[in-house]
């Protein structure tokens, strides 16, 4: 279903009933990412699955600024208002985790619990952010120039996703096809607007967050394991799950364990 949020259309899918669980996918993904878990989670939770701007069935605005952290957070707040939801559980993966954390920091009154998979609070130092912005800008330009097939080949081969190559060919092909369904213009603008270099750093504010959080990382994803361990030390109420035999895409590489970990955390933090 389409929702017009502050002048742009978002594709939103809702399934199940119970306490609301807002789900935010990663870069080059869509709400289809959550399909393997819909049957399990929707038995007890109302799932709100959103295609972020430039992805899936949502709009791809021309202005990169419209994809920015504060803009997207406002959109999500308006969506919850439309759905008449006062509080939600919130789960985000990778880019979706960065968005989820930013949303929580800006609208903590709307969040009951937070699950971050393979995510970070951004880059701490301005020099790092400048370098990453330049890198994201260069990648965005190449996506526009060379198209979605080039991007899918390039993105599937980056070291971050090396562990995915251990998966069955059928699973790898499904992930590849999902990348190729994207609009290259939308991905490029998303990189420019809400890439890691554009996101504000929340490291210095983590101690101010008093919302129960679950941090999930794959043991083969050493960078994000380290980030998650450091985040746990700074957050006031956080659990950390390092998932064996998984890399950056824990929900793909270990779906049964991921399902169990998420449900256990949510079930322990019911609103009533």
From TrEMBL:
Subunit structure: Monomer.
Domain AB hydrolase-1 as annotated: residue spans: 20-254
EC code(s) of this entry: 4.2.99.20
Catalytic activities: 5-enolpyruvoyl-6-hydroxy-2-succinyl-cyclohex-3-ene-1-carboxylate = (1R,6R)-6-hydroxy-2-succinyl-cyclohexa-2,4-diene-1-carboxylate + pyruvate
Entry-linked SUPFAM superfamilies: alpha/beta-Hydrolases
GO molecular function, one term: 2-succinyl-6-hydroxy-2,4-cyclohexadiene-1-carboxylate synthase activity
Keywords noted in UniProt: Lyase, Menaquinone biosynthesis
Gene field: menH
Matches recorded under Pfam families: Abhydrolase_1
Gene3D superfamilies noted in UniProt: alpha/beta hydrolase (3.40.50.1820)
Top enzyme class: lyase
Pathway(s) where this gene product acts: Quinol/quinone metabolism; 1,4-dihydroxy-2-naphthoate biosynthesis; 1,4-dihydroxy-2-naphthoate from chorismate: step 3/7; Quinol/quinone metabolism; menaquinone biosynthesis
InterPro entries, per database record: AB_hydrolase_1, AB_hydrolase_fold, SHCHC_synthase_MenH
Similarity field: Belongs to the AB hydrolase superfamily. MenH family.
Function, as annotated: Catalyzes a proton abstraction reaction that results in 2,5-elimination of pyruvate from 2-succinyl-5-enolpyruvyl-6-hydroxy-3-cyclohexene-1-carboxylate (SEPHCHC) and the formation of 2-succinyl-6-hydroxy-2,4-cyclohexadiene-1-carboxylate (SHCHC).
Protein's UniProt name: Putative 2-succinyl-6-hydroxy-2,4-cyclohexadiene-1-carboxylate synthase
Source organism phylogeny: Bacteria, Bacillati, Bacillota, Bacilli, Bacillales
């Amino acid at each position: 279903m389409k929702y017009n949020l502050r002048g742009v259309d978002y594709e939103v899918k809702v399934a199940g009933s119970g306490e609301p669980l807002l789900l935010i996918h990663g870069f080059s993904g869509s709400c289809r990412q959550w399909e393997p878990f819909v049957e399990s989670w929707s038995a007890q939770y109302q799932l709100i699955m959103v295609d972020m701007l430039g992805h899936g069935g949502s709009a791809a605005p021309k202005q990169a600024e419209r994809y920015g952290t504060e803009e997207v957070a406002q959109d999500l707040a308006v969506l919850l208002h439309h759905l008449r939801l006062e509080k939600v559980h919130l789960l985000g993966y990778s880019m979706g985790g960065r968005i989820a954390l930013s949303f929580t920091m800006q609208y903590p009154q709307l969040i009951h619990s937070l699950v971050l998979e393979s995510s970070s609070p951004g880059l701490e130092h301005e020099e790092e952010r400048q370098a990453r912005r330049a890198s994201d800008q260069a990648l965005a330009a190449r996506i526009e120039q060379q198209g979605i097939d080039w991007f899918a080949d390039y993105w599937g081969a980056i070291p971050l996703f090396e562990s995915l190559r251990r998966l069955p060919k059928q699973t790898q092909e499904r992930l590849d096809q999902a990348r190729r369904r994207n609009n290259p213009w939308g991905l490029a603008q998303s990189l420019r607007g809400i890439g890691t270099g554009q996101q504000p750093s929340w490291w210095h504010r983590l101690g101010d967050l008093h919302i129960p959080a679950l941090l999930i990382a794959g043991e083969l994803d050493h960078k994000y394991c380290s980030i998650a361990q450091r985040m746990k030390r700074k957050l006031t109420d956080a659990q950390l799950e390092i998932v064996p035999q998984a890399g950056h895409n824990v929900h793909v590489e270990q779906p049964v364990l991921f399902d169990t970990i998420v449900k256990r955390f949510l079930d322990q933090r019911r609103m009533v």
